[in-house]
Design goal:
Elements: H1 6-17, H2 22-29, H3 33-42, H4 49-74, H5 78-101
Helix pairs in contact: 1-4, 4-5
Length: 103
């Protein structure tokens, strides 16, 4: 398990908000093969700061998308309203799966 400075953690959070995969983040960080393997292992560890920042980034990205869709829907964009409702439905399904199965 490696330690990561705040600069790297912020980059991971920001890229996760853009829905970048861990392997793409490895590429952007230009990690060596050995460091990449450690990084990919660390990002899967439940209590690791790297995983927490990655998950935070994903949540921020989803929030930003939802806010944008709400604004568009409030402006009368029916497609945005449909997409927002679909995202909310998918989120609820993911939450139920996580609660029931830990997935």
């Amino acid at each position: 398990m490696a330690t990561y400075d705040s600069h790297i953690l912020v980059k991971v959070r920001n890229w996760a908000a853009l829905k970048y995969s861990p392997s793409r983040i490895v590429t952007l960080l230009d990690l060596s093969k050995d460091d990449a393997l450690v990084f990919l292992d660390d990002i899967e560890k439940e209590d690791h700061p790297l995983k927490k920042m990655y998950e935070l980034g994903i949540a921020i990205g989803e929030y930003n998308m939802d806010v944008s869709l709400v604004k568009q829907a409030e402006g009368g964009n029916i497609d945005a309203e449909i997409q927002l409702r679909q995202r909310q439905k998918e989120l609820k399904i993911r939450e139920i799966k996580k609660d029931l199965f830990g997935v």
